[in-house]
Structures are given as structure tokens and as C-alpha cells.
Amino acid sequence: MFKEVPKTIIVGLFTLFIFLLDDLTKYFVHRWMHKYPILWALHKVHHSATELTPLTIYRTHPLEGIVFSLRSAFTQGLAISVFFFLFGDKVSLATVLGVNVVIFLFNVAGSNLRHSHIGIRYWRWLEFILISPAQHQLHHSIAKEHHDKNFGATLAIWDWIFKSLHYSTDTEKLTLGLDEHQTSKEHSLYTIYISPMVEVIEIIRTKIISSYQNTKKIIYQFLKIKRQIKKKLISQRKDNTNVKI
Q1: b/e per residue, 161-172, with b = 16+ CB within 10 A?
Q2: Less CB within 10 Å around the terminal CB: N or C of the chain?
Q3: DSSP E strand boundaries for the chain
Q4: pLDDT tens for the chain, residues 1 to 245
Q5: What Cα–Cα distance (Å) separates residue 157 from each residue in 11, 98, 133, 166, 230?
Q6: From the DSSP assignment, how many helices (H) and strands (E) are in the chain?
Q7: d(CA 207, CA 100)
């Protein structure tokens, strides 16, 4: 459709578009991981870490990995389809060492240290745009005022738009992990891998039972109303018959 556009412009637009779309979908999936019990059962494995290290990013339940892989496949498939339709085979991604150049620059700015004890803070105006390591560390805090804050992966503007942004401060001493109401303090393989699946199955079972009971109530109410209408119609017919006589 726009095949006359120079390739450098197409590459720049595609790189920026796929970055923005990818980051936005990461924000929403991450937010849903905290909102819906069936997803939180998986995601809290990551939040059970009481200390943050660069390896904490790999502390995730396998089923959560599948969810994020499906998100990535959808995002990339959509972006590639749109740009191939518009620009044909000129579409390609600007990368550094195989990584989207925008993500690469963000990692250079300290993103790789967000799962660490090093609380790198950005200027306040920059933390409005980018999630700093300190902001993500705050996301792992058990303090109530930090709950459901800073879901963004790279950009903080999504948090600002959807009212979940929290700036970092240099005076905060964070306690990380999960509070006593969220999970066991154990860190066994059973707790990390099996327990979340048991919890997911229990949530699904409860939902099915609840739906079944609600359906029964609806059917019962429907039949009750039907009987009342039928009874009323019979009564009206009798009244009409008596009037004729």
C-alpha cells in the first residue's frame, strides 16, 4: 500500500510500533496477573522472593511463562501482519545484538538491575516516562500503599494513564515478598510448582459449582414464573367462562 516509503523510515516505524504494542500488552497482562485470582495463583510465585537478584526474573511458574508467550505471539503476529500489509517486504526490525534497539537502550539505562538490591532511581520527570529499577523494586513491596503499583515493563506512561504509577523515593526501606495472607512462607518445590496448579484447579472447580448453582436458581425462577403465568391464565379463562354464563 505504501511501498514507496523509504526502508529506513519503515524500519524505524516498525521498531517503535512493535515496542509500544509489546510494552502495552505486557502492562495489561501483568496487571491482570494481580487482579484475577486464577492468574495471581501463578504470578505470586515470582512475588514470593524475599530478596531480589538478577535471577529473580526466572522465578516464574511455567504456566505464567505460557501466558506471556501467547501474549508475545499475538503482539508480534499482529504488528508484523499490519506492517506487511502496509509496506510489503521492506519490513524489518532495528536491533542491537538481536534485541529491539529501544529495549537495548532501556537495559543500558539500568533495567537489568530492577531485580537486585541496587535501587537505581531516575529523575522524577523520567520516572514518569520509564520504569526505574527502584520503581519495580517498590512493586515487589508488601506495603499496602505499594500494592497494584508500577505494572509497566519499560514505559511508566501506562501506569500514569491507568492510575497505577508510584514514584520511587530514596527514604523507602522495602520489605519484599508476600504477606501472611497471600501464601505460605515455604519455598519448597511443591509450593513453587505444584501448589499454584492445585489452587488454579480449586478456583476453576469453585467457579463451575457457583455457575451450576446460579443456573439452577435461574431455571427454578423461570419455571416458577411460568407456573404463575399459567395459573393466572387458567384463572382468567374461568372468570371469562363465568361471565358468559
Answers
A1: eeebbbbbeeee
A2: C
A3: 95-96, 99-100
A4: 666 778 888 888 888 999 999 999 999 999 999 999 999 999 999 999 988 998 898 899 999 999 999 999 999 999 989 988 888 777 777 766 566 777 777 776 666 788 888 888 889 999 999 999 999 999 999 988 999 999 999 999 999 999 999 999 775 788 898 876 566 566 778 888 899 999 999 999 988 988 888 888 888 888 888 888 877 777 777 666 655 55
A5: 24, 26, 15, 11, 60
A6: 9, 2
A7: 41
Can you tell me which residue has the cell 404463575?
228
Is 97 buried (19+), middle (13-18) or exposed (0-12) by CB count in 10 A? Answer: exposed
- Per DSSP, what are the bridge partners of residue 96? 99
Q: Look-up: residue for cell 516505524? A: 13
| CA–CA dist 129, 127 (Å, integer) | 5
Give which of 175, 164, 165 is closest to 137, Cα–Cα: 175
Cβ 81 vs Cβ 23: under 8 Å: no
From 37, 19, 26, 32, select the one nearest 202 (Cα to Cα).
37
Cα–Cα distance, 129 to 159 (Å, whole number): 9
Handedness of CA 227, 228, 229, 230 (dihedral sign): positive
Residue 109's CB: how many other CB atoms inside 10 A? 16
Helix (H) or strand (E) holding 231: helix 195-244
* Measured distance CA(87)–CA(89) in Å, rounded: 7
In Å, how far from its chain's centre is CA 106?
A: 21
Q: Where are the domains of the chain?
A: 7-183
Length of the chain as a residue count: 245
